């Protein structure tokens, strides 16, 4: 049986979330602490913003989860296709995209390198530079020169954009259709790619220009927005409730040891490259505590933490980019979540 969270655990997390709200790091937020057996502790504080008439943040608030898209959509879909033989970890991504001729330095990056951010691709993703281009996006990205030696760790969104394009091409279906089917099987009934309606249960994000409407219901990531809100690196909206269900499913699959999803999670918890002392990058996930902990963050103020061996998880959902500068000040809350799982 997984170990449940103590009253001290939840009290510390609740106080740190409240301090973040009081300090205008975020207008509000939700934390769900739980186990693979369905035990859940839901912690809430604050609102989702003035645009939503001060509606309180709840486990059913829909958040733009930003780069959690990588582990909630692209990573599990890649695992499905690897298991089906549609993708191969150590083959170049070019092999899984529509055929084109000529040199393609970035197209030689392998699926493993793209998943682990060790491809050497350009780190600064500016898809607006390709406005009006005649060639398709996958060809434009593959033709780009490398920026680093393959094997060098550097967080790169364009690698997951390529993964999303490859996954859709190999399946012969749009990325959002594949993701919808996956989420439906898990029971994540509110999770979707945007855009979504501007509703009181949808958390707004950033106001980029004073006096202009705040981003609300549309994806915050500019490159995902240029792709219609659907991309391998960003674009997904989810509730804390659904993310908790996803975490429970992953942990149960890991414990079972027989399912495809569990096997993919185990494979992904093998460190591929060191980020800093004590922290490695697996396949998509950041690994800590000798790979006993896996986690990922989203730019908007979201995080998902897993302790597969202990059967526990922590979900954090905020819209900290609401204040523009506030996202970076979530570090105390994120560090506490990691420490809480490590303490077990």
From TrEMBL:
The keyword Hydrolase applies. Its EC number is 3.-.-.-. Residues 17-334 form the Beta-lactamase-related domain. Keywords: Hydrolase. Pfam families: Beta-lactamase. One of its GO terms (molecular function) is hydrolase activity. It is an enzyme of class 3 (hydrolase). The keyword Hydrolase applies. This is Serine hydrolase domain-containing protein. It comes from Microtetraspora fusca.
């Amino acid at each position: 049986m997984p170990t449940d969270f103590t009253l001290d655990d939840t009290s510390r997390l609740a106080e740190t979330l409240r301090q973040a709200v009081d300090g205008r790091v975020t207008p509000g937020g939700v934390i769900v602490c739980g186990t693979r057996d369905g035990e859940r502790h839901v912690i809430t504080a604050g609102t989702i913003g003035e645009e939503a008439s001060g509606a309180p943040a709840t486990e059913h608030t829909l958040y733009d989860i930003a780069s959690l898209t990588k582990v909630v959509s692209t990573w599990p879909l890649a695992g499905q296709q690897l298991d089906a033989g549609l993708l191969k970890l150590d083959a170049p991504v070019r092999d899984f995209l529509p055929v084109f001729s000529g040199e393609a330095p970035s197209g030689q990056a392998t699926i493993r390198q793209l998943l682990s951010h060790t491809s050497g691709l350009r780190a600064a993703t500016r898809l607006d530079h390709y406005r009006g281009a005649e060639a398709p996006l996958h060809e434009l990205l593959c033709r780009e020169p490398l920026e680093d030696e393959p094997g060098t760790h550097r967080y790169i969104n364009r690698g997951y954009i390529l993964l999303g394009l490859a996954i859709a091409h190999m399946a012969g279906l749009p990325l959002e259709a594949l993701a919808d089917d996956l989420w439906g099987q898990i029971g994540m009934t509110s999770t979707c790619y945007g855009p979504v309606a501007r509703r009181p249960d949808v958390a707004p994000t950033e106001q980029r220009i004073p006096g202009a409407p705040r981003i609300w219901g549309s994806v915050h990531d500019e490159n995902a927005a240029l792709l219609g809100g659907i991309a391998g690196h960003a674009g997904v909206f989810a509730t804390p409730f659904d993310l908790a269900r996803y975490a429970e499913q992953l942990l149960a699959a890991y414990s079972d040891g027989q399912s495809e999803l569990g096997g993919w999670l185990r494979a992904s918890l093998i460190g591929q490259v060191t980020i800093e002392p004590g922290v490695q990058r697996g396949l998509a996930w950041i690994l800590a505590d000798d790979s006993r902990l896996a986690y990922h963050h989203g730019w908007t103020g979201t995080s998902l933490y897993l302790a597969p061996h202990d059967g526990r998880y922590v979900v954090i959902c905020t819209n900290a980019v609401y204040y523009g500068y506030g996202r970076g000040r979530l570090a105390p809350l994120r560090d506490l979540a990691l420490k809480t799982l490590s303490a077990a």
